[in-house]
Each structure stands twice: as C-alpha cells, then as structure tokens.
Amino acid sequence: MRFFIVGVSCVGKTAIGLKLAGLLGYQFFDLDDEIEACFSMPIEKLQDKFLNMNSFRKEASKALSHLLSLESSKESVIALPPSGLMSSYWDVVKKSKGLTIVLNDKPGNILKRITFYDKDSKPMKQHLTKDGRAFYLNEIKEDITYFNKSYKKADISVNVSGLNIDESALKIKKAIENQ
Description:
single chain, alpha/beta, Rossmann fold, five-stranded parallel sheet, two-stranded antiparallel ribbon, 53% helix, globular
C-alpha cells in the first residue's frame, strides 16, 4: 500500500513521513527530491522554465508517475508538495489507489519550523524580524486557506498540533489502522 502525505510547507511531511515509513517497515520518498533527481536540477530552477505553476506541475507529475512505476514504491510513504492533491499530481495520485493523508497544524507552529532554501535547494540561515514573522505567518495562513480546498479530497486528516515527530507518526499509524 502507498501512503501519500500532504500539507502546507513546513508542516512536517518529510520528518513525519520518514518516521511513519519506519514504523510501517516501508520505503520513504520525498517527491521534491524525486523531481530534482528526475530533471537533474533544483525545483526552483525547474519552476523558472514554466510560465505558471500548472505547467510546472504537469511536467513534475511525470516524476511522480515514474516513482509509482518502481517496485520499491509499492509499499511506501510519499511526501507530496503542498499542491499534491491538485491538478496533474492529483490525476496521478488518484489512479494509484493509495491512501492520502493531510497533516494540519497551527500557523504559529509551522512558522517555528519555517525553512528557507536558495535556488539550488540548499537550506539558508535566515533570521526573521518581527515584521518578517508577521509577513510569513500571514503567508502560512493564506496557504492553509488556499490548499485546504484540495485537502478535502484526502482520505485522512490528522492534526499534529502540539505533537512531536514520533507522536505524530504514531497518531497517523493509528488513523490508518482505523480506516
């Protein structure tokens, strides 16, 4: 079985998904890494080649299709980008007959985990000012509102607010078992 983890940026998809995969004895894949490997370039540079995000997602969904064709992905946990249940990604995910799981958290908690990357997908150290924190908190809230429309398609919704990585993975495992 495949489990697709989706949620807004910095909600914990990769860390929690990796822990969940370990609990299940499954492989873990991060679609961002798979896209970069498939196209031999960082995501931001790949995105720059397209006029809009839908065009980018259509091309990037080829990496997801390729991943799902691999035997090693038959029993896996796959972290999707925030748009994982939209457009071309959704077309691929829904055909796979896997279980989709959306992670939810409070905007303030997500802000504490915010990570910035350069154009080469390398993490950057960045200190946020009070105004910067307010700006990104608003951005996170807007992302939650925007993506929640597509997250209603998910099979399971798990609130990870106040939970650490281990607790979050265990909560998801229990939700899966109750499906």
